[in-house]
Write a structure and sequence with these properties.
Chain A has 189 residues and is mainly alpha-helical. In chain A, helix 1 packs antiparallel against helix 2 and helix 2 crosses helix 7. Chain A contains seven helices and no strands. Chain B is an alpha+beta fold and 234 residues long. Chain B has a domain of 61 residues. In chain B, 32% of the residues lie in helices and 36% in strands. The longest helix of chain B has 40 residues. Chain B starts with a helix and ends with a helix. The chains are: A mainly alpha (189), B alpha+beta (234). Chains A and B meet through helix 1 and helix 5 of A and helix 1 and helix 2 of B.
């Protein structure tokens, strides 16, 4: 029996397996990258929906909450910054300002019984709170997708394919300290 | 005659080995898919392939009754098999279980997590469950698998439009139903947690690769032996 031929077939089989695994890894990495893009698009949709509701909310509460002018201004400025942000980090920083300001606004609203009785305000509060909750989940989902991708491209054997694809780490949806400070300064102006 | 028989025998071994080997790749791909998709919360489900965990809540008035375990459920598989013993031409006895009846019934149900509930249509899903009931009477074996209310499930499927929702609801989850996708064919429901599933998929993958590899090697060895044998005598 030709042992050399058997060995060649076994080696060929192993090589074929490796090639197929590498192809599956390549497809997997492409899918992961697309998952990140999709997860980001899903956040962006909600950010826009929330941005559309904020002017209505401010219009609704400004007559009642004269003393909370600074909170309302912070929301308005952060809304503009979210829409204009050029980087993910800046967007995350402005987004976190809106989230915090909205929490303050809804907490302070408890002190205004007339506002609490306003049906339009209640509707907007429910709608914005629901959007905030969905946003929190989708931020978490986006960050999970990014973490899976970043872990994959640094793990063996995915690392081999990732290097061929020149893949680099994707950024998490979180604000850098620098952008946080920048946004705070711009809102505080 | 000897040469032809063994050549065909070896070819069958190689083909079966290749099929088993390819099945290993299928499980490898599914395992990576489960690993690569993070778990979504029900209230923020987006359209497309999603992974969710939660407990089963029946849709009002929609429950099945399983024939063997006599349980109220939203899905059951009822399998009846008969034990048959046959003898081949050389008098060797072979026994095997022959399927007599294999029924699967399901109704849509809700999957609830700590943020909300979403409608699930389990039709055409690959369902992986622990056996709920098993009994044997004579040469007949009866087995049953059920999804009962309050069972904890892992689901990977396509979040698509809920056909029962004619007008868009303000709560966007009500507009969604998890189902088998048109583009994403993977639709999997299990009562095992994700970690256990990944271990199961890994084991199946490696097992299929080893078995497939062994089949291919045996096929090749037999083929080469026959070739050498024939070379000696012809």
């Amino acid at each position: 029996m030709d042992l050399g031929l058997i060995l060649a077939i076994v080696i060929g089989l192993i090589l074929l397996t490796i090639v197929v695994i590498l192809l599956l890894i390549y497809n997997g990495l492409v899918r992961l990258k697309n998952n990140i893009k999709k997860a980001w698009a899903n956040i962006d949709v909600l950010l826009k929906q929330r941005s559309d509701e904020l002017p209505n909310l401010i219009e609704c509460v400004k007559g009642y909450m004269e003393h909370e002018r600074s909170t309302l201004e912070a929301i308005t400025k952060a809304r503009t910054e979210v829409l204009q942000a050029s980087t993910l980090s800046k967007k995350a920083a402005s987004d976190s300002v809106i989230t915090e300001s909205l929490k303050t606004l809804f907490a302070v609203a408890e002190k205004y019984p007339n506002l609490k009785a306003n049906e339009n305000f209640l509707k907007l509060q429910t709608r914005i709170t629901s959007l905030e909750n969905e946003l929190a989940d989708r931020r978490e989902f986006y960050n999970d997708s990014v973490t899976i991708y970043n872990t994959r491209i640094h793990s063996i054997p995915d690392m081999i394919v990732a290097r061929m694809m020149k893949s680099t780490d994707e950024q998490l949806f979180s604000a850098s300290e620098e952008d946080k400070a920048l946004v705070q300064v711009s809102i505080g102006k | 005659m000897f040469g032809w028989f063994h050549s065909i025998f070896s070819l069958i071994f190689v083909i079966v080995g290749c099929v088993i080997f390819a099945a290993g790749f299928y499980f490898f791909k599914q395992k990576r898919l489960i690993e690569n998709i993070p778990t979504s919360k029900v209230r923020s489900l987006a359209m497309g392939l999603v992974e969710v965990n939660g407990t089963v809540v029946p849709v009002e008035g929609k429950l099945l009754h399983s024939p063997l375990a006599q349980k109220d459920c939203v899905y059951y598989r009822y399998l009846v098999q008969r034990h048959e013993t046959t003898r081949d031409s050389k008098g060797h006895s072979q026994s095997r279980w022959v399927t007599v009846q294999d029924d699967r019934y399901s109704v849509p149900f809700y999957l609830q997590d700590d943020t909300g509930k979403v409608l699930v249509d389990p039709t055409k899903a690959m369902v992986d469950l622990v056996t709920d009931a098993q009994t044997q009477r004579g040469n007949m074996r009866y087995q049953e698998w059920c999804i009962e209310p309050q069972n904890t499930l892992y689901i990977m499927g396509t979040a698509g439009r809920n056909p029962g929702q004619t007008e868009a609801s303000a709560n966007h989850v009500e507009n969604i139903m998890i189902q088998k996708g048109q583009h994403e064919k993977f639709y999997f429901i299990s009562d095992s947690p994700e970690k256990k599933l990944l271990t199961k998929f890994s084991l199946v993958t490696y097992l299929l690769w080893v078995i497939g590899g062994v089949f291919i090697i045996i096929g090749v060895i037999v083929f080469l032996s026959v070739t050498e044998f024939m070379r000696m005598f012809l």
